[in-house]
Design brief:
The structure holds 2 protein chains of 2 kinds. By secondary structure, chain A is an all-beta fold. Chain A contains no helices and 11 strands. In chain A, the strands form 2 sheets. In chain A, strands 2, 4, 5, 6, 9, 10 and 11 form a 7-stranded mixed beta sheet that branches. Chain A has a 4-stranded antiparallel beta sheet with strand order 1-3-8-7, with no helix packed on it. In chain A, β4 and β5 form a beta hairpin. Chain A is globular. In chain B, the strands form 2 sheets. In chain B, strands 2, 4, 5, 9, 10 and 11 form a 6-stranded mixed beta sheet that branches. Chain B has a 5-stranded antiparallel beta sheet with strand order 1-3-8-7-6, with no helix packed on it. The model of chain B has no long low-confidence stretch (mean pLDDT 91). Classes of the chains: A mainly beta, B mainly beta.
Chain lengths: 114, 113
Amino acid sequence: GAGVSQSPRYKVAKRGQDVALRCDPISGHVSLFWYQQALGQGPEFLTYFQNEAQLDKSGLPSDRFFAERPEGSVSTLKIQRTQQEDSAVYLCASSLRQRNTEAFFGQGTRLTVV
Amino acid sequence: SQELEQSPQSLIVQEGKNLTINCTSSKTLYGLYWYKQKYGEGLIFLMMLQKGGEEKSHEKITAKLDEKKQQSSLHITASQPSHAGIYLCGADKGGSTLGRLYFGRGTQLTVWP
């Protein structure tokens, strides 16, 4: 596709439920980032992939959060046993290289935990 | 935690007026990015600045990075309702976190006709 695609756009989960959020980056983009954006805040870094390698996961808030990009293309962010504080917009971004390049963002997935 | 300070938090201007949004870091940056976000949507890339003293323009939007690479300003000339949205600055600190962006809280811009 022409841009970064994320699905679903909206997700309502009951507390304790597991969720999986998908990101389709721009074809050929090496770098892929996940960010979490709480209401009224700027995005905060969660994790970074270079191709299939997860090089930085220091931003994942707990071991309930897990991300993968097994073939260096599509990525999935999984949240286990969701809590209310997980409610946020989850943004995916991809860039052609790691440095000096524009990161293209998807529309995000708005997760609401009830 | 927010690594960058943005000001003002919100801005309401009349169509046709000029405005400036500021972004300040306590540390020298490798790169500074400006994005625009409509509510509930993703971020739209505006500009990237890397060199001290650099200035870039696109249509009616100009962004500058100071010589010390610690402060950036975004200036909109003759604002229009289409400029409304949330403006976010993002900093690349380089080094071991190269490519990772640290964002400010954003500036909510409203332009009334």
